[in-house]
User: Fold Thiamine-phosphate synthase from Paenibacillus nicotianae.
Amino acid sequence: MITKPDILHIRQYLRLYLVMGSVNCTRPPEEVLTSAIAGGITLFQFREKGVGALTGQAYYQLGERLQQICKTHQIPFIVNDDIELAIALDADGIHVGQDDAPAEGIRARLGYNKMIGVSAHNVTEARQAIQDGADYLGIGPIYPTISKADAQAVQGTSTITALKNYHIDIPVVGIGGIHAHNAEPIFTAGADGIAVISAIAGQDNVEQATQQLNTLTRRLMIN
Assistant:
């Protein structure tokens, strides 16, 4: 388990954020995660959703195995939506959507030393998430995506820009259809990082694809 970082370190963790479950992989997810870590991801979210997703004990055991890989390499391990799993695994945090419990209630159950990310699609949702105690915001979908069947309407970088114009200073990560050739506008708009699924997990050479994104995001953060 990684102790909850301060806001500066959360920004650094968000730079290259892999979101993945078994349904997103063409190889065993343990292999994909190991290769992605070797390539330079900075944060990992276990998201086991979609057609063919694991359930029950198999779901728990996969989360446990992926968490151990993250622990070995000191990569924070975040669980998507499932607070019971996050508690059972003593995960480093959780990421929730607008249809899930507010961050304030999650914090009371999960603990005050955990990271809580909240998806937001506009300034109103972002402000509410911050009021509820979110540590960072996931903004999207930035571009069209096939990785999430329940994705909201594509919004580009407009919400990220709006958040910066309203001087909302909580760390922000862009998500949705992002890859190496369209990531730059997200950083230009003011995001602290990108969250990707298929741009890493769906690639033939996961480590190489991750290295490319790692090099790119490092450059964009500096600029």
Remarks:
- Strands lie at 16-20, 43-46, 77-80, 93-96, 115-120, 136-139, 172-175, 193-196.
- The CA atoms of residues 18 and 194 lie 9 Å apart.
